[in-house]
Amino acid sequence: MKDQKVLISGASIAGLSTAWWLNHIGYRVTVVELAAAPRIDGAAVDLNGPTVEIAKRMGLYEQLKSYRLGVDRIEYKNADDVTEGTMIINEGPESPGDEIEIEREKFVAVLTGALKNKVEFMFSNSIAGLEEIADGITVTFNHGSPQIYSLVIGCDGAHSGTRKIWFGPEAAYAHSLNAYFSISIVNKVLVPQRTMQAFSVPYKSVMLNAYNHKTDIIFMFVSETDIPYNYRDTAQQRQIITAQFEGQGWRTTELLKEIEQSESFYFDRFCQIKMPSWSKGRVVLVGDAAYCPSPAAGQGGSLAMQGAAAIADALLKHNGNHELAFTEYDRNLRPSIEEIQTIAEQNVKTNFVLKTEEEIRRRNAEAKLF
């Protein structure tokens, strides 16, 4: 493995984590990223038990822990802003145990700091073509000369360009959960900090989560039919959210104005990626590109880090034999991925977006028991 060149597509959590691990075990790593800088947009990242152990192996746990967030309570609101149910999660400001919730921006900063002067970055560029040869894979880029690498690792998200080029169209692997969401992060506190508030009407929900003088604004809705949209056209996506939530009560009018003015806006459908194999030849996928569980799992960042470590461990075990390593990576990680995808699908149906007033009232009332 020493001095073999590896290309990682995507400076995401999956891409940065994979870059750290492959550099750690001896590869010369290049990360190519379509954007002009590592991606920091999106909700906070949860690191669960297995991922905490990986962060400790990387020597980054204490640094990540210093930015730990947390939610103490969830309040379920009705249209008149009356709290109908409260779920107490923590009794105090310190989160129990080793698990971490951290702002994505802070998480990415820690990872990029750990990669400084160790990994080459190519920003504002992307893979245009791949051709496997006898002892490597030739990569052509949208900008610059072709290069030969030993391996290519796609870490470029649920809408992976690497997957499209090498494995085929997204439609072959994407499984819609018949729901859509948006998230905006505004630099003001709209609810008490360390508190999450939720409001629901049939087929639609709004959530607010405040931390570090910021608030996440999340809109979610169910649609039994696919809504066509351009995932790069944020103006169109804002219009979709406005059309769904205009006049729905509670604070929706105020919140729609907030997201209209906010530069931070991300929209997508709740979708899972399911592939029969995460690798083909010298190309392998990690994170959402391979096995996106959807945001309903709340574990996208954790699963990305687990995939990165699993790839490195397998390559180390098999002395760089990519065929054996990729097979073991798939075999070891797939059972837990499939379990989490099942949980995420159930979350959309039973927790995030409820379909009747009766279900909403029951959830709010049951929260009083905690």
From TrEMBL:
Alphabetical list of Pfam families matching this protein: FAD_binding_3
Alphabetized InterPro entries for the sequence: FAD-bd, FAD/NAD-bd_sf, FAD_aromatic-hydroxylase
Record-annotated FAD-binding domain positions: 5-318
Coiled coil: none
TM segment ranges: none
Lineage: superkingdom: Bacteria
Protein name: 2-polyprenyl-6-methoxyphenol hydroxylase-like FAD-dependent oxidoreductase
Organism per entry: Mucilaginibacter lappiensis
